[in-house]
Amino acid sequence: MSRALVTSTPTPEDEQRLIDSLPTGLFIGGEWRAASDGGTFDVLDPSTGLVLTSIASATPADGAAALDAAADAQRSWGRTAPRERAEILRRAFEAVTERADDFALLMTLEMGKPLAEARGEVAYGAEFLRWFSEETARIAGRFAMAPDGNSRLLVMKRPVGPSLFITPWNFPLAMATRKIAPAIAAGCTMVLKPAALTPLTALLFTQALAEAGLPAGVLNVIQTTSAGAVTGPLIQDPRLRKLSFTGSTEVGRRLIADAAHQVLRVSMELGGNAPLLVFDDADLDKAVDGAMLAKMRNGGEACTAANRILVQQGVAAEFSRRLVERMAAHTVARGTDPASKTGPLVDEGTRDKVHELVTSAVEAGATLALGGRAVPGAGYFYEPTVLTDVPGGSRILNEEIFGPVAPIVTFETEEQGIRLANATEYGLVAYAFTRDLNRGLRLAEELEVGMFGLNTGIVSNPAAPFGGVKQSGTGREGGIEGIEEYLETRYVGIADPYAV
Ligand code: NAP
């Protein structure tokens, strides 16, 4: 792949050089092209509000062309040798790793996260390429004699077929590789619509995949400012066989309804409202570290973010004191500043919503222990904020905050803690800190979630199945389960070979 352009301590000149090197078109049928109506849109730096660059904005006609290319490529791509697909993924892993500083800087520029976190996402996102390159050669079926001995049962795995991916802005690389890598492994062709706020990382990644040898038409990329108008017709097109969406529950619900028309297979990675429980017997140092990680990773703009911090009565005052101390020491600055621990929120609307949730919690009776204001000046920065004694029923306990705000609620018994934790329509992830292993196992069984972190503030791992229950979605990404989302099971009944 093209050589790395920037170093780990990028200068403003590096930023410009990287931006100037990016493709700006749509990627359809193996070629970069302008939008059919010549339309473009601006991508902004949320730490300044200034324009980084301007890129093509797909029209419905471009969407149709992308699905044409994916449908045309499906048959030959589905028949490639697994090893060939594995090696493309492996080369892509190496290319992304080699250009880790470029990818990290680009994510910092378009999304705002600090460079250190962006580097973490590059490693995490790239690992899906390596993991699924290793899984490619392990796709298998089974063979059995029917119980009555009168026939043979062959069960085989086939690629699902052309798939549409719609991804959010908060993890611009990893949310794409979590879908693209298993789809390549399984032999599916794709159309990707990245978030309009952060499309640049997807463009650089697409370039890396093309250079790694991905055949024309296998991946088509249609960034646009008209998400519904461009993807809607594709979801109704009988050539499309799969929709994988990561984003809000609100949009996910609508897409599931749209997908019902042609009974499309769907994977939905939707919103979260994670509880983080701290019990009286917890190691408080570990609990505070875990809460900081679960709350402040990605500036709180994560579906896995601890949205409600539930602390048992006996340690509530001490835990809150320590959390306030740690949050107060958290430096808010542009992500390229080496001191930055939290960058800006992604846009003004996101910051306004965070502030609205804080204000309504305080009006409902919560105590503002730290922060609670937008940082004045350019960019969409918000102060690390801690709320204590948040009354049950507050909006902030029911909606995704998506910002650096930690609401603390106290509880008395384990039973009450579990009840509070489960009192949400979401079910993505929960965290708990306790020294009692039996309690940990009880929680693992009682909490209504797809993922549970026991004495840890992070669960994301490419080798593990990521996903939720309830209104956090359906399907799993990563792990040995991740490839199943892109495989169909076909059963072949075979007559008894002795009955001839
Ligand atoms: P969003 O508003 O739902 O948007 C997600 C994607 O859907 C974007 O690409 C968006 O395009 C597109 N979209 C919006 N309306 C659409 C429509 N009518 N038809 C087709 N596509 C449409 O979510 P977001 O604000 O980008 O991301 C934050 C949400 O994602 C949070 O709720 C978070 O919890 C969730 N999330 C979940 C996971 C998980 O794995 N469970 C991971 C990360 C994030 P535009 O960019 O043009 O709006």
From TrEMBL:
At the top level of its lineage, which domain of life is listed?
Bacteria
Database matches in Pfam families: Aldedh
Establish whether keyword Transcription regulation is in the entry.
Answer: no
Q: Which InterPro entries match?
A: Ald_DH/histidinol_DH (IPR016161), Ald_DH_C (IPR016163), Ald_DH_CS_GLU (IPR029510), Ald_DH_N (IPR016162), Aldehyde_DH_dom (IPR015590), Aldehyde_DH_Superfamily (IPR050740)
Cite the entry's keywords alphabetically: Oxidoreductase
Q: Which CDD domains match?
A: ALDH_F5_SSADH_GabD (cd07103)
User: Any one Gene Ontology biological process term?
Assistant: gamma-aminobutyric acid catabolic process
**UniProt KW Oxidoreductase keyword:** yes
Which GO molecular function terms does the record list? succinate-semialdehyde dehydrogenase (NAD+) activity
Tell me the PROSITE patterns matching this sequence: ALDEHYDE_DEHYDR_GLU
Which residue positions are annotated as catalytic? E269
List residues of the Aldehyde dehydrogenase domain: 32-492
Q: Where is the signal peptide?
A: none
Q: Which family does it belong to?
A: Belongs to the aldehyde dehydrogenase family.
Q: What is this protein called?
A: NAD-dependent succinate-semialdehyde dehydrogenase
Q: Which organism was this protein described from? A: Subtercola boreus
